[in-house]
Amino acid sequence: MYYGMVGNNGKPYANRAMNESDLLLMVGARVADRAVNQPDLITENKVLIHIDVDPAEIGKNVGPAIPLVGDAKHIFEDIQKEDFSCEHGEWIQLLNGYRDSMRPVRRPNPDYVDPAAFITMLSDAMEEDAVYVADVGQNQIWSCGYHVVDLSGSPDLEKLSAAYDMKFMRLYTMEGAEDTIRAFLENDESVLLECIIDPMDLVK
């Protein structure tokens, strides 16, 4: 069911799937004009459900038919309790046809590393819990287009800091915060400090 990134730098078949859908579920996305030239077009002839933990982001750039504010995990847990039945075999077949017919044909220069092939090979060879980090610019675009994504987990910041040979600290509660901040600032080397906050605690 994954057809790639949408938007200006996305896959044409992914954009077509979004445009022709009857129901669009948007989770934690702003639909900024830098990503989508005409955000209003994605709401044409479809129902848009927008999920975000920050109410200020709901409808910020495009108005949803159904706004849902809250932690995505909790919302999806509630959705799973509902009974849905639908047939979408023809729709999947149509989307697969789009992907096959609209897949870009690459002709990379053999004198250089093909970034698309290399990133795909690299991600295939990586462990499932490996942390993949891309620099800004074209590096991000290549990575979004050709990195094999596993959505079962999330980046581990402790492993990320280890990859950069940085010290790592994690703060779970305000108890001991002063000591943690003191130790953090006294370090002359780079340190990554992760603070575990309540995802439902919004900026006020």
Features:
single chain; 204 residues; alpha/beta; two-stranded parallel sheet
List the helices and strands and how they pair.
Blueprint lengths: L11 H9 L2 E5 L19 E6 L13 E4 L2 H9 L8 H14 L12 H11 L12 H9 L10 H7 L3 E5 L5 H10 L4 E5 L9
Parallel strand pairs: 1-2, 2-3, 4-5
Helix pairs in contact: 1-3, 4-5
How many helical elements?
Answer: 7
Radius of gyration: 21 Å
Shape descriptor reads globular
What structural class should be given to the helix and strand makeup?
A: alpha/beta
Mean pLDDT: 83
Query: Strand order within the widest sheet?
Result: 1-2-3
Helix content: 25-40%
Which regions have little confidence, pLDDT < 50, spanning 5+ residues? none
Q: How many strand elements?
A: 5
Distance between the termini: 38 Å
Main β-sheet: number of strands, strand sense, barrel status?
A: 3 strands, parallel
Could you state the oligomeric state of the chains shown? Answer: single chain
Q: Determine the strand fraction and express it as a percent band.
A: 5-15%
Brief synopsis:
Helix content is 34%, strand content 12%. It has helices at residues 12-20, 72-80, 89-102, 115-125, 138-146, 157-163, 177-186; strands spanning 23-27, 47-52, 66-69, 167-171, 191-195.
